[in-house]
Each structure stands twice: as structure tokens, then as C-alpha cells.
Specification:
Layout lengths: L2 E11 L2 H9 L11 E7 L2 E7 L7 H8 L4 E8 L15 E5 L2 E9 L3 H7 L12 H13 L10 H16 L4 E6 L4 E5 L16 E8 L2 E7 L10 E2 L4 E6 L2 E9 L2 E4 L1
Helix pairs in contact: 4-5
């Protein structure tokens, strides 16, 4: 199964060391060699780089390591194909414009695409590739489109929409995902396959918060911890975090069949 990585910080930072550790999972230390992608925000836009080859062997990834960038929000994905052929259009993250903002999405899991298509009919947004992940992203954007008819909808409205979307996706299969709307990074943990034919189980994502300096805060999330440092904690199945500027501003958990927002 694929792996996810994301970072949110108060001030733009380099993520070279974290990306280097993450890229090694893309065919060198783990079998995720079917593609990779990287998206980061800069000057109100998103730079997106994707390749249908192993990240650990990629000259483009080496170039990024040797010419580091700074950003306040970064999302990356390494692929082990479960749905869709090996092609750049099926590599993640995916990025689309909505409401004058760039929205970025990456998913780790294996949704029932036939049931997804039956349950959610797409309207304005449609996938370029043929993965369950991109279809889910288009479904999310269709859900959010009414909100984004005005500049930067209220955070609570966006949070509620993402929570409902996450619940729909969990009913269709493992649904770990990262979604950024140019203001907030949403992190949803669910279940992940441990490999060896074993069924998916929690945790699907791990999170680390760092206070690097008095004026700097950083939140990092990854499918598996990327360092040995203390502080990594796993998300419970169905847990959703909203992060802005390196600070967790909302946490939604499923408890006793009810949503509890902290």
C-alpha cells in the first residue's frame, strides 16, 4: 500500500531531510516503487511534480534534494499501485483550482471504486486518470463547490464538509488522506495494510509536532514515523486533524458512534 507525507509550518521551511527519508521508502527501504509525487505551496500557487517511477531512483527527486525549496505546506505520496495502470496521471498528489485557490489531495488506501461511483455521481470535477483516489478527490471538490462560491468559506463549514466526506470514504475501504485548500491542511487517519496479505488495521497515519524556535511551529504527518525522535503519535481510526501554520486547530474523533470535536 502507498505512503503519505505532509508538513505544515508557521513560517516556510525546508523539508529536505524528511523528504529524503520518505523517498527511501519509494523502492529502496519499502516496495512503493510505482510512482511518486510532491506538491508544495508557494506565492499562492502550487508546484506539482510527479513521476511514474520509483522515488529512490529518480533523478528529479535527487535534483529536489540538491536544490531544496521552502514552503509552509508540503504534501507527498509514494505509490504501490492497487488501482489504475502505471502512469503519471495516476500518481499523486492531485491538484485542482476551486474558488480561486489551489486544492491538493493525496490518498492511501483501496476504495471500492464501483461502489464509490454508484454512491457519488460527479458533477463539475472529473478524474484525468483511473484511480479510486482521484475519483474521491473529485467527489470532495464537488461537495465543497457550493461553499467556495465566496472567498475562503468559514473554517467550521469546511471542516464539517471534510468530516462528512471522510465518513463516506471509510465505508468504502481504507481512507487515509491529506487535503489542503490553501489555508488549512486536513489529515485523516484510518486503516493501513501491514502487508503479507494481512487485513488493513489502524493506525493509518502518524503525526509529530515540533516547536523549532519561539516563532516556529511545525506539524509533520507520515504513514510510518520517519525519525527515531520522541513525539510521534498514531491517529486513531477515523481521526481527523485540521492544521494551520504548524498548529493543530481542530481534532475530530469518532467515539461511541458520535462525532466529538475538540
Amino acid at each position: 500500500m502507498c505512503e503519505l507525507f505532509a508538513m505544515s509550518s508557521r513560517s516556510p521551511v525546508e523539508v529536505r531531510s524528511s523528504l529524503e527519508a520518505f523517498a527511501r521508502h519509494g523502492g529502496l527501504e519499502a516496495p512503493h516503487k510505482d510512482g511518486w509525487g510532491l506538491a508544495y505551496y508557494a506565492d499562492g500557487d502550487v508546484r506539482l511534480v510527479k513521476e511514474a517511477e520509483a522515488a529512490s531512483d529518480s533523478e528529479c527527486m535527487r535534483f529536489i534534494h540538491e536544490h531544496p525549496f521552502v514552503s509552509g505546506v508540503v504534501i507527498s505520496h509514494i505509490r504501490k499501485a492497487t488501482q489504475g495502470r502505471l502512469a503519471m496521471k495516476n500518481c499523486q498528489p492531485f491538484a485542482r483550482e476551486l474558488g480561486g485557490r489551489m486544492h491538493v489531495f493525496a490518498h492511501n488506501g483501496d476504495l471500492d471504486l464501483a461502489r464509490l461511483r454508484t454512491a457519488i455521481r460527479l458533477e463539475q470535477f472529473h478524474p484525468v486518470g483511473d484511480t479510486d483516489s482521484e475519483y474521491a478527490f473529485c467527489a470532495l471538490l464537488d461537495r465543497l463547490r457550493p461553499l467556495w462560491r465566496r472567498p475562503i468559506p468559514a473554517f467550521q463549514d469546511r471542516l464539517a464538509a471534510v468530516v462528512r466526506f471522510a465518513a463516506e470514504m471509510r465505508a468504502l475501504g481504507p481512507a487515509n488522506f491529506l487535503y489542503a485548500d490553501g489555508d488549512v491542511l486536513f489529515i485523516h487517519g484510518h486503516k493501513r495494510s501491514p502487508g503479507g496479505g494481512q487485513p488493513p488495521r489502524a493506525p493509518g497515519l502518524h503525526v509529530l509536532s515540533r516547536a523549532c524556535a519561539p516563532d516556529q511551529q511545525v506539524v509533520i504527518t507520515a504513514s510510518v514515523p520517519l525519525t527515531q525522535e520522541p513525539g510521534w503519535h498514531s491517529l486513531t481510526s477515523g481521526e481527523l486533524l485540521a492544521v494551520r501554520g504548524g498548529e493543530i486547530i481542530a481534532r475530530v474523533r469518532i467515539a461511541a458512534r458520535e462525532l466529538a470535536v475538540a
